[in-house]
Structure formats: C-alpha cells, structure tokens
Amino acid sequence: MTFDKLEIIEPILKAIEAKGYTHPTPIQEKSIPILLRKRDLLGCAQTGTGKTAAFAIPILQHIYNDSTAERGRRRIKALVVTPTRELAIQIKDNFSEYGKYTGIKNTVIFGGVKQGAQTKALNVGVDILIATPGRLLDLIGQGYISLRDVKYFVLDEADQMLDMGFIHDIRKIIDMLPKRRQSLFFSATMPPKIVSLAGKILGNPDRVTIRPEQTTAEKVGQSLYYVSKKAKPKLLVFLLKTEEVESTLVFSRTKHGADKVVKGLNKAGIQAEAIHGNKSQNARQLALSNFKNGTTKVLVATDIAARGIDVSELALVVNYDLPNIPETYIHRIGRTGRASASGNAISFCDVEEKPYLKDIQKLIKQDIEVVTEHPFLPGGVEDNAVSEVKPDRHRQQSRSSKSSNSRYSNSSKSSNSGSKDWRRGNSTSRKRPQKKSE
Ligand code: AMP
C-alpha cells in the first residue's frame, strides 16, 4: 500500500513525500479512509504508531476542500486537545509539515508560559488549533477563542488526560463544541472510564485498534537487569559507558528521582539533563532541543513529560524504575522503535518491582530476556561494595562473578526462558536503529 492509494490530495501527498514517508503505517492505512468519509473514529493506539499523521492528513484535506468560501479572519475549524505541552508542540509541527503546501494555518497554545505570543497568533486567525486543556479554557474565558466554527475535533491521549485529572476540563470543552462535527478519540488503553468518555464525544464511531504488541514486542529489543535499588546508579553509569549509544532516554518514576539520576550521571562525567513537570517550559524545551541536536546524549524523564518526546533514531530507552502501570511500559519503550525504526529497551528491576514486572510481561505477552551476568547482580561483589565504576575492570570481573542472591536469580520465569550475558546480551543496543526516512 502506498499513500496515493488512499486518495490523498496532491498538496498533501507532496508534503508526505518531502518527509520521506513511502508507506502508510498500519494506523494510517486503516484510519485515513474512515476519516476521509467524515466518520467518527475511536482509535486505540499509542504515540509512535504514526497516529498524528493518521488524523492530521484527513483534517487538512477536509479544510482544504471546504476552504473556498471563507472571508475575513480565519476561524478555528479544527481543534486538537492533547495532555502535554511537548505533545502539543509535536502535533503542531506535524500539521505544519503535512500542510505546508495547503495554505492552511495552525497554532498551538499551552500553559506555563506567557500568553502574549499565543493570543497574538489567535488574533491573526488560524484554521487549526492545538491546545492543552487548561490554557484552552483560560483563553476561551478571556474571549480570545471561539469554538463555534469547529467542525473537526480530536481528543488525543485520552487515558493520559484522565490520569492527569483533566476530565472536568474535557467535559467543559465538549459542551462548547458544535453538535455537528467529526470527532476523533485516541487512547493507548481503553479502561471503562475511557469507553464511557468516548461514548459522550463520539456518535457511532468506526474503530481502529493497533495492538501494542505490534509496535513494541516485535520491533524493540528488550532486556532486563535484576539489580538492587542502591546499585542502580552505578549500573546505569556502567551501561552508558560501555554501550556508547548516541541517544538514551532514561525513565524515572518521580521528578525528584529524575534529578538525582542526572546528578549521578553528571558526576560520572556523562552529560545528562532532566525533563519533568517541575521544570519551566523553557527549561524543558531547551533540554529537549539539546537532546534532539545531540548536545545531550542522555535525557532523564518522568512519564508525563516524556509523552511528547519524538526523537528520530532514539537508540535506547532505560527503565531506571519499572512503571507500576503496565501500559506505561509500552508507552516508554515505544519511544524507541518509532514508525519505521527499531530500537532497544533496558529495564532495571529491584526486588520491590517484581510484581510490576509480572504485570508488564502479562500485558506484552512475553518474557523479557534477563541479563544473567553483569557486575551489579544483587548480592554480588559489586553490589555489596558499590564504588567508582571503571568499565574495563568490570568487564574482567563479571566473567568470574556469579550471583549469590537466589531471590533474584531463580524466581522469574524469564530467567529460564531467555537469558544473556551483558557483554553479548546488549549487542543489539549498541547497534544504531535502522535509519528512518525522515
Ligand atoms: P506519531 O505516532 O504520530 O508520534 O509518529 C511517530 C513517528 O513516526 C514520527 O516521527 C513521525 O514523523 C513518523 N511517521 C509517521 N508516519 C510515518 C510513515 N508513514 N513513515 C515513516 N515515518 C512515519
């Protein structure tokens, strides 16, 4: 299947070609025809599947085809609501790229920054607005935005909206939308609350589900390191120094934890920055652009802050802490192995995290391969005497070291199914992911 079979108009096809996309991803192949027929859509898919183009292309096409009669200032015809600022910016960039030959204008609004530049853009007039919920309601309240002319509405990452407590804001926004509209609803997971919210927004939708297994298990190399909590910082330094990966995204469960990891890495001479909700928007953007342009090789993020991170050729994801919500694991490892690339994910698991591991493996329907030999095995020599790490020294030592802690070494099914030595086990993570066409 190629894009021209999807009946996409010429100016958009040209932009897709300029992006270097040759084939639609599964969600694009399934959703674009439905959306071009102006049907409502309930999409179960995560970021990394190509879902932004799946909704942006048909919306641009509709607006392009409708646009003949408009006079005066442009009115907002499409509204995309998304939970985080990073994701909002990402979506805006996508609309700009896919729409660059259409003359359609968009802008993005989000909280945490002064509103002046945003209201200025709104006053000039835009066709498409991408927004986070709080700033959207704020600017509606101040009279800068009217939703009266919205014909296309997208609620993106609905499960994350719920987790972040945006449900009331979303309800308010929905109440302001015209009844006659096309609605698109995307969520990575579909728990009952999400299904009920979808029922309020959509009228008899078509459904598209892109199974997480398709995007994670098959494309991302995954491995697991049992390690005590106290040895995690050293193991991370050790792996980053030995793996020599170009770009690594490290996940921490908490903001404080992310800062601590960065401190530890910087102390060990590894350039790293943190990105989380306690940082100002400008600091987050700067950390992100440093990471994207390669100045910073390691970015340490919390789950919410990481939502919008879209870095092509992200080589490695490290789960420094295992997430307590199994779906989060899929979101995280989906940061590598995006659309057409392959990537690697390493997870650390301390004894308290074993229940989380069990839930994750149940969800992904596979056992993550355990690295059975590494210098920081729980109860091993290095675990007991965590000191300055020199990769070469550990390379020698790990050959003779054996785990003496049975709590870790024999209680996981995974250790039987597939196990590996860190020296060869992560050979895949040393490999750069397949080059993306972008
Ligand atoms: P998304 O899930 O929308 O965040 O997209 C994930 C990544 O895939 C982004 O970097 C997109 O630019 C890229 N992408 C989207 N569609 C395609 C495609 N058909 N071919 C190659 N890359 C794509």
Number of helices: 22
Number of discrete domains: 2
Q: Helical proportion?
A: 40-55%
> How are strands sequenced across the largest beta sheet?
10-11-9-12-13-8-14-15
CATH architectural grouping of the largest domain? 3-Layer(aba) Sandwich
Instruction: Name the CATH superfamily classification of the largest domain.
Output: P-loop containing nucleotide triphosphate hydrolases
End-to-end distance:
19 Å
Radius of gyration: 23 Å
| Beta content | 15-25%
Mean pLDDT: 83
Structural class: alpha/beta
Largest sheet: 8 strands, parallel
Please mark out the parts with pLDDT under 50 across 5 or more consecutive residues, or reply none: 387-419, 421-438
Bound molecules: adenosine monophosphate
Instruction: Return the CATH topology of the largest domain.
Output: Rossmann fold
The total strand number stands at 15
Assigned CATH class of the largest domain: Alpha Beta
- Anisotropy-based shape: globular
Structure description:
The strands form 2 sheets. An 8-stranded parallel beta sheet has the order 10-11-9-12-13-8-14-15, with helices on both faces. Helix 5 (116-124) links the parallel strand 3 (106-109) and strand 4 (128-131). Helix 3 packs across helix 4, helix 6 (133-141) crosses helix 8 and helix 15 crosses helix 16. The protein is an alpha/beta fold. The chain has helices at residues 10-19, 26-36, 51-66, 85-98, 116-124, 133-141, 158-163, 167-176, 192-201, 212-215, 232-243, 255-267, 281-292, 303-306, 326-333, 354-364, 381-384, 391-400, 406-409, 413-417, 422-425, 427-430; strands at residues 41-44, 78-81, 106-109, 128-131, 152-155, 182-187, 206-209, 220-226, 248-251, 272-275, 298-301, 316-319, 343-349, 369-373, 419-421. The chain has 2 domains: 3-210, P-loop containing nucleotide triphosphate hydrolases (Rossmann fold, 3-Layer(aba) Sandwich); 213-421, Rossmann fold (3-Layer(aba) Sandwich), CATH 3.40.50.300. Helices cover 43% and strands 16% of the residues. It starts with 9 loop residues before the first helix and ends in an 8-residue tail after the last helix. The protein has 22 helices and 15 strands. It is globular, with a radius of gyration of 23 Å. It binds adenosine monophosphate.
